[in-house]
Protein 1
Amino acid sequence: MSLELFERHRALLDLALAATVTRSGFTARAEESTDSEAVLEAEGREAFANYCGSYFYLDQPGVGERIGEERSPYGSSLEIQYPKTNLGTVLPAAARAREAWRRFTLRERAGICLEILQQLHLRSHEIGLATMHTTGAPQALAMRQGGILAQDRALEALAMAYQELRGVPSSDDAAGSRTQGELGLTRRWRQEGLGIGLVIGCSTQPNLRAYPGIFANLMTGNAVVVKPHPQAVLPLAITVGVARHVVREAGGDPNLVTLVVDEAQSPIAQSIALRPEVRIVDYAGNGDFAAWLIENARHARCHVFGGAVNAVIVDGTANIAETIASIVRSACEYAGRMCTSPRVILVPRDGVSTPNGIVDRDRFAELLALEFGRTLSDDLAAARLLGAMRLDEYGTLVQGASALGEVLVESRVIDHPEFPGAQVYSPAVVRVKPEERSIWMREWFGPISFLAECESTADAISMAAAAARSQGALNAMLFTLDAGVRVAAEEALGAVGVALCVNFGRQQSVNDELPFCDYHGPGINPAGNATVCHSAFVAGRFRVVGDRFFR
Amino acid sequence: MSLELFERHRALLDLALAATVTRSGFTARAEESTDSEAVLEAEGREAFANYCGSYFYLDQPGVGERIGEERSPYGSSLEIQYPKTNLGTVLPAAARAREAWRRFTLRERAGICLEILQQLHLRSHEIGLATMHTTGAPQALAMRQGGILAQDRALEALAMAYQELRGVPSSDDAAGSRTQGELGLTRRWRQEGLGIGLVIGCSTQPNLRAYPGIFANLMTGNAVVVKPHPQAVLPLAITVGVARHVVREAGGDPNLVTLVVDEAQSPIAQSIALRPEVRIVDYAGNGDFAAWLIENARHARCHVFGGAVNAVIVDGTANIAETIASIVRSACEYAGRMCTSPRVILVPRDGVSTPNGIVDRDRFAELLALEFGRTLSDDLAAARLLGAMRLDEYGTLVQGASALGEVLVESRVIDHPEFPGAQVYSPAVVRVKPEERSIWMREWFGPISFLAECESTADAISMAAAAARSQGALNAMLFTLDAGVRVAAEEALGAVGVALCVNFGRQQSVNDELPFCDYHGPGINPAGNATVCHSAFVAGRFRVVGDRFFR
């Protein structure tokens, strides 16, 4: 094994390590185009086209029949066939690969992981298209979330793990040692991964949510089994293929990273998670399944993102137009299909203070409806903001909205101007009574938002905190001119693990995610316990055994 | 709040922080006597005498009747009465105290915790006597484990937590902040403890095993409820009293650290552990209870030490006398009542290689029995090595030994020459067939060891690994002259989290514990997941919430 890959990528690793200390936010690669971009983009288009209608080649053991049921929300049936994998073969192969992986030093592992990231980066375009055509995300978002953003989150996990592991003495050798005292007692430490890490992909942000677990596991000496969502296999299949290639080239056993594909009709995530060899589970998606994992996969460490009822609290604002634009933008991006999307807008019964006087609750509702209308009036602009959706998955969510309360904004079905056969569903906004918690105090994952009036701002804060406590929440948007309100919100919401986003304007979305900076999902409420930049994310994935010996 | 305490103890903290990096082992205070030692010792004796037959004063809320059932294994009935605490009062008080504690900065918390340690250090003598007369540990061991060693382990947890927390930007203010970019977005991070940490004390090493959890919890912003073993309350009661005093003097709410005492007939550890306010549980002791906690207190992080079947594998040795002396010393210390005590000695059927030829299995058994006899022949020396025991707790363990196999060494009941009324029970050694795993492959916590012959050294290694995997093990002593055997043992036992102790001599005990150095209980097997010097021990006890705001 050699340190060539480590040396090649060392400068980037050093920058990433520095960023884990400063927490200033860091991105490894500029997004602007370079000369080679056009070539890479053309290659990406061709590669993506070649996947469609074909058999996705993976040289894994235990491959039997072929399966695949992805359909692009943008209209095309992708018709990609994947190997259906026999767990009885793959898990022992992964365990054997981990044995080989144990002999790689920390630097060797880091070099290999950095090289995987570099190879993924070069294939960002095909991965972006794969993300777009499986998840339905708007193209620009898919490119970013499937590509650079996922890669940066991966780099963050890699750097956090490197930092933790080099804290173990002499850990850069597979087993460091040190001789102490006159008697010649030698101490030697070994890092041990826990076993196999299962990473379960989600349907809306497959790479972004899976990469931190994959790279944290590899760095800490674990094998990885990737089980994508049946509707969003391709982005992770490409990822696994790249990882296997790099590991093999570096002299490792490619079964260190394997792909297990299932079908919606016969899901296998539960049965893999319960296998005793699986010691770590990373998952993002449905809150009930996240809770099931924590409840049942008790032999494993579970890092999950579940449901989130993110609130918007509108107490006051210096500029009501900016405030409403920020709310609408945050709610419309990807049609509310992000774990950070706002779910409920809480307004005090007495209205919203502004420098020009009170905006009363009805006027607020009217302004909100107008802004949704304006933002989504142009079909192409709306489609590029919302992305495409499958009717079967999201239609029912919205169609039932009118039964829930006063429909303030109707959901529209838009034929996508660029993709014949693709539908776009715009968000509905439903006005409910705040006491109807059973309606709004759960996650409606998709294009629907609720507007609820509260007794007071204090009431709104306590409702947002209650929703976080019981259902989970990652963030809360707060608009206020009152320093006391801000302190009260910081206290009440901080204590339940909700990140406040205060006085955002038109330019800012609550969905913006900044690697190496935001403590996304700190684990205080059920929405998630997978903060990549908290050392708890990596520290529990390995153990250290210390030996003492005399000659 | 002031930084005076932090500045006062800063030099020590810096040394401790350095030691967490070098892992060279570190002790804060020299053990040798100083001029003031004699005074402190006299004060300690007086303080301890004053506790006996008295009511232990603690100014906690919710105090009702008085309870207490400690009896010294050294003969005296201590007759100390403790406040019986009403959980319905104590837990809300602890939660309120935590709210106040949240406003202390990291440095302020560190200063207060370091001052608590300093105050505990000044009372090491009374704490040592309290430890001796509740646990039955030999006096020198009780002084060390209840005093300096426990304090050093506490300092280690404190330094690890400090290190983790200062990794959060600007975390030395209660909420650090930083303004980014042209738009004036300010990011601010808050550290949040999880809630209340329950620390459950054990009967044999109450302070040593409880301090890391107590100090890790305090540093990370949690309140602590200490529930001692009903037979070993005093060492932790003194500790809680000191902590409350220092917290109050520093302007905090003393209910940050509370004591809850129960009786053997009506234990309350389970019901406290299941309270939703309790988010962290630290426990050392019975393996079944450790497993129960992990299984049932799922809303809480559990750091536990459970049972351990530590093996001794004798393949070969350059000096059979040294080898046997090391085994016997390790087995006799504190009469096998440490989690590190060896439990089973595995010898290959073909005997033990030495430079002078093979020592066959019968000769090995004979030498072992002789060494036990020699070590324990003098009553006073034996008593000082073994410590005192209560008949009801340990007698039955040994009395049934003869039914289990060939009794190689009989247990002796020794009247303690220094303490009339105190009994000392010397270890029995029972020779069993290796296939009788149901006998030896479980933890016999006390003065009994097993000798089992194996097919081969490879067989012995695999049996030791199997015992670790199923029952837990912290260490294995290995004696060998064969580098291949050592590598095989490192592989097989390292993978199941067992720390190897290779070729120890008469001077070395497997029970030696070195703060800031040994990764005790790494969490790979059931014996424990509470390695103080692994950042996972502290990192999960707090969360970080990041807010973003505009003016």
Note: The radius of gyration of chain A is 24 Å.
Protein 2
Amino acid sequence: MTVRTEHGTHLAGPVLVIGAGLLGASIGLGLRARGLDVVLSDASPSTEAVARDIGAGRVLDEQGTDTALRPELVVVATPPDVTARVVAGALHRYPDAVVVDICSVKEAVVRELTALPDVVAHLPRYVGTHPMAGREKSGPVAARGELFTGAPWVLCAHAGSAPEAVLLAESLAVDLGAVPARMTAEEHDDAVALISHLPQVVSSLVASRLQESPARALSLAGNGLRDVTRIAASDPRLWVQILSANAARLVDILHGVRADLDRLIATLEDPAANGARLDMAQLMAEGNAGQARVPGKHGTPPGSFAHLTVLVDDVPGQIAKLLTEIGDTGINVEDFRLEHSPGRELGLAELSVLPGKDKELTESLTQRGWKVVQ
Amino acid sequence: MTVRTEHGTHLAGPVLVIGAGLLGASIGLGLRARGLDVVLSDASPSTEAVARDIGAGRVLDEQGTDTALRPELVVVATPPDVTARVVAGALHRYPDAVVVDICSVKEAVVRELTALPDVVAHLPRYVGTHPMAGREKSGPVAARGELFTGAPWVLCAHAGSAPEAVLLAESLAVDLGAVPARMTAEEHDDAVALISHLPQVVSSLVASRLQESPARALSLAGNGLRDVTRIAASDPRLWVQILSANAARLVDILHGVRADLDRLIATLEDPAANGARLDMAQLMAEGNAGQARVPGKHGTPPGSFAHLTVLVDDVPGQIAKLLTEIGDTGINVEDFRLEHSPGRELGLAELSVLPGKDKELTESLTQRGWKVVQ
């Protein structure tokens, strides 16, 4: 990763981005912001135009000079269903380019590619990748160049990937501020089934139960329900393709969930039965054990930060005042979350700081007249 | 609610709080902060001592003057299993007091109470309540007087509750800054099965799957997994009692979840089958529809706020500077969430403001040199 261009980037460009939705347009925006020449192409003329208009790149002109386009890198950011075919087309059309895709399932793409005629000879120039970033929103309007900042970007070289191609794929990740992580397609697909596809479908299953519930019941909902159902807002069209492409792995995990759910239902159908409560406690304790393994926001182990809560009046400037005074102490805020109160002009600011800094900060804020409630 | 004491509270005290865990101690702290006399009692001497030491109230002295204690209100904050028996004991021992409990399931308590000997005559003085507040942590050390601020506090009068008793229960909620909501025990138990017990058990089921997964897989986890599994950290001992007490209602909902899970598993076992993708899309769309009904943090409909994201360097004072400058604009921040980046000295500050204010704020911040990415 020592090559540096005049722009201070690892890539030199031009970069052709095929598929100008949320991720494609975000890649375009990010690379353009770093001074690279980005050319966009999308099957939908209106998506392509929106992506161009927000500054994600110039449009590939079929009739014009673009027959002469010789991209350094082609990024295939199309929906999963068509990814392999588009990758194959790009490998043929741009014989000097490295081609990467960013599809969220990796083994299926390689499998489909190797089954296509006349592709095998080109495969050294292909690398599968997956940036671990996204939003509940879709389309180029939701795009942002900083979407990948600090996020892991998985690189899945296949057995025949050329080392230079892998390095160029890594350059893309680094130039967009992401953290490259190399693993096999199998490792990747196992991981995302568990950490992405499982929470997605379960969130949808829970949210689905809310369809017919009285609004009065929902008005009592707290952060627990909100957090569990947030990703249930995701786009069904995209997710059907992702789930289909990783179906076998996800279904294995879901069989485990169903077995546990059956155990739970059995205990709840006769909670007074011998052993029912022990079974219930066991299921909850297993959840505790799994939850404790989820890394925190920094990718650090859970519990790495100390937390404190400060009462804040809900008027302009109060939160700013609080954070100015925290800034004055020189203690860095690792995380900050404001919890509002329905029907009251009061908020709870939840702050995370490095362990050991919480007492110092509590004392300092209390002296300045803030109410620190923990 | 026009009665006001010398303290500016609706209650006059003394208030006896039986059970000095997270909720009991938080009630004690909140009422003490408003100047009321709070007496604490807990089956565990050490819990009782900790609650006293953090300022949640004085301790009930069995040998001393407390035989003369005449509480205005007794708050039973014991674990669900023993709630009815403790309520009955308090009704007998303090014949002038109103007795409320704060157990998270309401019908079971009334049913058990009415089945106890010699209690029926006292029942007009009993009101079941449930503050919709809690934490993943437990015990008096986690208590805070502002725990109930702005949260709904459900009051479930039974057929025989005296109107004065209901008013006094409401006074407790109001004095602690909560928002009283009257409903029947049936309505309440239906609601919490859906909005609290369902997300809790499903979060545990998902987290449970993470027990054996490679740490490498978990290192890719994003906010989706973190949000879905957060409440899986909750206390199994408490939850076994809650789930048992509302088992019939929860199990009805879980049968619906299992039916959907079976549909999903069937589609994933043969994703190429006729209709499989349509079924999958339908399940996801049902999740969209349910999620859209979850109220936002203010109890407002979802989508009530406009969002924008600002890049912030991860050095002390930068976030404070940002919020000071937002404060200067006079635009109120409705929500603020800081997303950190593993391995990078950069954060994304996600701000929510009233719709229409986002453009004004974006312009103003951009002029001041901030990078607003959406």
Note: The mean pLDDT of chain A is 88.
